[in-house]
């Protein structure tokens, strides 16, 4: 690293402190020789002058200050100034020995940084520290002071010291990040502290929680995208928590202090989450809820986190709700945290439109199909999710029926009453025709539910037949059929045996055939009427 510094010398420890050990680091950059022999840079009110025998032929304005300089010294090191000077001369400025004026309104640093730039261009040494290196590096990039233009130029030297300061100690790293606040307009282009790449996540994830908090606070102030901050927090959490176990194996710390550290860590992670919408994934937030419940974090903080997840449900997919469990007797995925969030959503959704409720209803039905085959999923938890939302949260029960059928198949030992309680939320009129037909032939459903569906199917058929036979009262026909079947199948809660179910199915099929025949007759009659009218 020292050989790469190319003229950047570290001061002795006795004077400025060592670069290592977290003490302040200091560097003196010695630039290449300038083509102009000059004295020091001096200030007179808002004007800066270089003491030299050659008259100034370039004035650079930075904010409220004017620097009276020389084109030869500045353009030989700066590609950006070189282009501006060339453009000005092409427009006819600066001829006949006149001085060119350049205004740098968008220079990403202050007057002090540009003063260092001028000193470098004129061959004067430049003092830099961890607190001043980032603005100088940004300014050097903005002014295009690369080695392609002049060997040993400012970009390479500031870049070398920037890397040296970052890798020397975290204290210096924080100073560098803090200094970036004043140059945030340029860091998006120069990738100082922020990049679309996440290579730095791995380095930051090695920090303990107190240092990590400082880094996150610094990059937030610097304007790093909330999504990147959220991803960094998720990466750090995955590094320090294996499942729900805190990776902190210091045997010298008592167990009760380790538990307290875990609680403080989780609460700190929740508090530092970026507040912006979609900055953190729903799945990661659910994982934090899981950790928080295990470690017993502040209940109010946990409630706010659950409310935040609840507000995101309408934009989630079923896979977002899958958070793994790690116990042998646990369900594959943690269902309890999803139940808590759905309950929080119900409290929020009291004033929501039915369309929005239906979005979450479909989400929960999809989630149920993903977890229904889990043999460790209790009937209580399954029913809590099935019954969690209001009845108007669903317009179609097809996915719910599918989930219930999968659950009954994976839990064949359920009693008849238990199976009936699971199916209560499923309604005949919210099933498609195919789903109804499947349900009426499904041996896993309780007989009471199958019988009810068949009776409703008969009622539907009777109404259709009655509508075709205008001389029959639809209400009377329906009542007669219901009375007959009630007498057969449902006396005082008695559930029809399998033979009765088969008879009812046969009746339904016969009624369907009659309905088809009636419809065909109706069509023939309509055609005959049309022909007679034409004649």
Automatic annotation (TrEMBL):
Pathway: Protein modification; protein ubiquitination. Keywords: Ubl conjugation pathway. The keyword Zinc does not apply. The keyword Ion transport does not apply. Residues 198-460 form the NPH3 domain. Residues 1-21 are annotated as: Disordered. PROSITE patterns: BTB, NPH3. InterPro entries: BTB/POZ_dom (IPR000210), NPH3/RPT2-like (IPR043454), NPH3_dom (IPR027356), SKP1/BTB/POZ_sf (IPR011333). SUPFAM superfamilies: POZ domain. It comes from the Eukaryota. Residues 56-130 form the BTB domain. GO terms for biological process: protein ubiquitination. It holds the Pfam family BTB. Belongs to the NPH3 family. This is NPH3 domain-containing protein. It comes from Gossypium barbadense (Sea Island cotton).
């Amino acid at each position: 690293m020292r050989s790469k510094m190319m003229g950047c010398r570290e001061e002795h420890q006795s004077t400025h402190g060592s670069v290592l050990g977290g003490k302040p680091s200091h560097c003196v950059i010695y630039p290449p020789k300038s083509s102009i022999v000059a004295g020091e840079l001096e200030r007179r009110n808002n004007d800066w002058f270089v003491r030299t025998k050659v008259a100034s032929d370039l004035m650079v304005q930075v904010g409220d200050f004017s620097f009276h300089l020389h084109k030869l010294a500045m353009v030989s090191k700066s590609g950006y100034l070189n282009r501006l000077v060339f453009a000005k001369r092409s427009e006819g400025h600066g001829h006949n020995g006149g001085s060119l004026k350049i205004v740098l309104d968008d220079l990403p640093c202050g007057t002090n940084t540009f003063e260092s730039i001028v000193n470098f261009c004129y061959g004067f040494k430049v003092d830099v520290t961890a607190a001043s290196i980032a603005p100088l590096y940004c300014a050097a990039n903005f002014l295009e002071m690369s080695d392609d233009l002049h060997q040993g130029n400012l970009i390479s030297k500031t870049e070398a010291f920037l890397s040296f300061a970052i890798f020397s100690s975290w204290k210096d790293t924080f100073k560098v990040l803090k200094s970036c606040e004043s140059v945030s307009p340029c860091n998006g282009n120069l990738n100082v502290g922020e990049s679309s790449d996440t290579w730095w996540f791995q380095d930051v994830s090695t920090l303990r929680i107190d240092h990590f908090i400082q880094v996150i606070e610094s990059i937030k102030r610097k304007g790093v995208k909330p999504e990147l901050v959220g991803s960094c927090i998720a990466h750090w959490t995955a590094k320090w928590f294996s499942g729900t176990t805190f990776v902190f194996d210091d045997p010298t710390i008592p167990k009760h202090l380790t538990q307290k550290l875990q609680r403080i860590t989780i609460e700190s992670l929740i508090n530092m989450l970026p507040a912006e919408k979609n900055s953190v994934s729903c799945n990661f937030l659910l994982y934090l809820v899981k950790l928080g419940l295990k470690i017993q974090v502040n209940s109010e903080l946990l409630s706010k986190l659950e409310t935040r997840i609840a507000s995101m449900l309408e934009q989630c997919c079923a896979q977002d709700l899958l958070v793994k469990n790690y116990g042998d007797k646990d369900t594959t995925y943690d269902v309890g945290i999803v139940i808590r969030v759905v309950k929080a959503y119900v409290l929020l959704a009291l004033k929501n439109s039915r369309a929005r409720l239906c979005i979450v209803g479909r989400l929960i039905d999809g989630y149920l199909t993903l977890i229904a085959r889990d043999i460790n999923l209790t009937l209580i938890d399954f029913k809590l999710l099935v019954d969690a939302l209001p009845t108007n949260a669903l317009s179609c029960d097809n996915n719910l029926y599918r989930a219930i059928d999968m659950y009954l198949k994976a839990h064949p030992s359920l009693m008849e009453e238990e199976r009936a309680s699971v199916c209560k939320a499923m309604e005949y009129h919210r099933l498609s025709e195919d789903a109804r037909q499947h349900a009426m032939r499904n041996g896993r459903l309780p007989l009471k539910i199958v019988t009810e569906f068949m009776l409703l199917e008969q009622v539907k058929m009777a109404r259709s037949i009655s509508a075709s036979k205008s001389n029959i009262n639809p209400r009377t026909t329906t009542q007669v059929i219901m009375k007959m079947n009630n007498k057969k199948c449902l006396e005082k809660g008695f559930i029809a045996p399998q033979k009765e179910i088969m008879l009812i199915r046969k009746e339904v099929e016969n009624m369907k055939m009659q309905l088809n025949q009636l419809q065909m007759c109706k069509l023939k009659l309509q055609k005959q009427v049309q022909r007679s009218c034409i004649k």
